[in-house]
Amino acid sequence: MDDTPAVRTLAEVLPTHEPPSPTTPFGRAARDFLYGEVWSRPGLSRRDRRWVTLTCVAAADSPQPIEDHVHAALASGDIGLEAMLEFVLHFAVYCGWPKASHVEGAIARQWDRLHRERGEQTPSWPQLSDDTLGPAAWDERFARGVEEFIDVNLTPAPPPNSPYRHAGILNFVFGHVWQRPGLTRRERRIVTVASVALDDSPVPLQTHVRAALHSGDLTKEEMDEIVLQFAAYYGFAKGEALADAVETAWASKAD
Amino acid sequence: MDDTPAVRTLAEVLPTHEPPSPTTPFGRAARDFLYGEVWSRPGLSRRDRRWVTLTCVAAADSPQPIEDHVHAALASGDIGLEAMLEFVLHFAVYCGWPKASHVEGAIARQWDRLHRERGEQTPSWPQLSDDTLGPAAWDERFARGVEEFIDVNLTPAPPPNSPYRHAGILNFVFGHVWQRPGLTRRERRIVTVASVALDDSPVPLQTHVRAALHSGDLTKEEMDEIVLQFAAYYGFAKGEALADAVETAWASKAD
Amino acid sequence: MDDTPAVRTLAEVLPTHEPPSPTTPFGRAARDFLYGEVWSRPGLSRRDRRWVTLTCVAAADSPQPIEDHVHAALASGDIGLEAMLEFVLHFAVYCGWPKASHVEGAIARQWDRLHRERGEQTPSWPQLSDDTLGPAAWDERFARGVEEFIDVNLTPAPPPNSPYRHAGILNFVFGHVWQRPGLTRRERRIVTVASVALDDSPVPLQTHVRAALHSGDLTKEEMDEIVLQFAAYYGFAKGEALADAVETAWASKAD
């Protein structure tokens, strides 16, 4: 096997993945562009690049990349089990329950595989206490949901005048999920930006990109790297829409 | 296993599905938000919620959720085989033939499993006669297609000046598929609304949501529940776009 | 503005598109990887690369890339209006009616823009006669549909025992759409391969990739270039699944 920077990066990104010498244009582009260029760049941490990539592969339903990248995130030590399981729930909110269910299955398989490869017993997943569910009093939950919505989105919260907004957005998405520990708000923003980019619903795309930059939780340099990482895994078509949203949001920050 | 309202709803929605005690944030949220909240809500029937869910899981390509929800729809008795197979064709139009092909495979597998579980021989699917294909005279078919287009969309039909409009829209989609028995127009509207929401092509999204509400085939309360069911199964980003389309269409109905 | 091979290729691919000097990692990767590498490669014609790209951008719902690539295909002379409108119908079958509706709107806008830019009156689209719809006798249509299915897919046709298979597959998709003139079978295969790759339903992906290679309509070299073009526009995650399908199909051809 070659020992080039591209191949060394590939080995760090996907440990225990034995890459054959690429014999196709796609294989060579994966080695040279994806690993030799995109993953090797400074400006965004390896862990943050994994958040973008995990979101993309899980949404893309590509069976083997999902297994490979979940395994690699855990095996490399870049992402622990707890954070990975929090990712599943956040991802479920933005890309829907079925895809999240599938990626949680992949986590179970790869967690088990990881321990078998190490000759270890597979630890069971931690029992969650009901403390993790947040306030059970709905008025308290709702009030915190409104605050969290404003904090995250930097816009006023919508009135609770539909099931989607009341039970969904204010009580569940912002009243609970965004407030959970185990993933930082900055990490939740990364997963959300990748999700709205692949979903390409125009208003959420603009809102979340703008909030990520205007809050200062992500710098322009980091966001530019997120755009490239996303474009590599979900394509330059949707990547262009994300790139445009970033430039628009950055220009409005200067004002 | 717990016996709570959430768990009882889950058991009705997914019979013969043995849910493990949720040990992950995602599993917890599935039990408490998805089943304890969304599926338990009044305002939209269980069968109608299944139409939204089936559309979402089939479009999401998540293998196990597709099998689970197809099985559950048939096993619960909420949806019969004939209606399920009509769904496949309608879904094929709105989400593409490959995904429809996959869900039809899931129906075959789950129909077989259902009967094996009951110790019964699996009834074969009926051969369909050409009587079900509608008029064989193009001018008659086209004229009915134009009428159906106007009836469903509440807008004038396009001129037949492209293959898509001529052979596709007027002769096949409205000239045949929307007129088939086995699914009511109201049910076809539910599948279509979920489809245009996940496809997020802006004009079809506005057109079909508006027509669903302005025709009176779906009430505002039902549509609001569809938005929440959809957001849970295909994500809150696209859910937001659907929610906005519903509000816009409802506001214009008052005018 | 630079005058490099990448920039010259970009100017051929997207004429009248004024590219700003790339100031972001994404912009530079678009110039260097997308145009400097992928579009510049031999092994697949410019027109065939456009079919892959049009399928990807239309499915991706990215508003500006759709307008840009539709305009460029027409303005460059690489694809004429008739073929573009046939593409819409074929694309509707494989990626669903709403996205096809949107791309047909883009074609109307860009056809008009093209003629305004040239100071010409915009020719209207031709009214299509019912002669273009094929046989109106259902038994004849069905028989031809079965033949076409076998010819295209290199597998037996399914029995007509569901609406999807009877009214859909045998009477419409293969009974009509695949037989229409205006796009060659080879071109229909290119659009279909890109569609099943982005849809990622496993069996249609394998079937259509295998049939494209085993029929000889697409060579291994051309297919390898399609994989790379697709991966660039729809991402390396789904690209990997397509690459695997190609290798599997090619290996089985040797047997």
TrEMBL record, chains A, B, C:
<dbReference type="InterPro" id="IPR029032">
    <property type="entry name" value="AhpD-like"/>
</dbReference>
<dbReference type="InterPro" id="IPR003779">
    <property type="entry name" value="CMD-like"/>
</dbReference>
<feature type="domain" description="Carboxymuconolactone decarboxylase-like">
    <location>
        <begin position="169"/>
        <end position="247"/>
    </location>
</feature>
<protein>
    <submittedName>
        <fullName>Carboxymuconolactone decarboxylase family protein</fullName>
    </submittedName>
</protein>
<dbReference type="Pfam" id="PF02627">
    <property type="entry name" value="CMD"/>
</dbReference>
<feature type="domain" description="Carboxymuconolactone decarboxylase-like">
    <location>
        <begin position="26"/>
        <end position="105"/>
    </location>
</feature>
<dbReference type="InterPro" id="IPR052512">
    <property type="entry name" value="4CMD/NDH-1_regulator"/>
</dbReference>
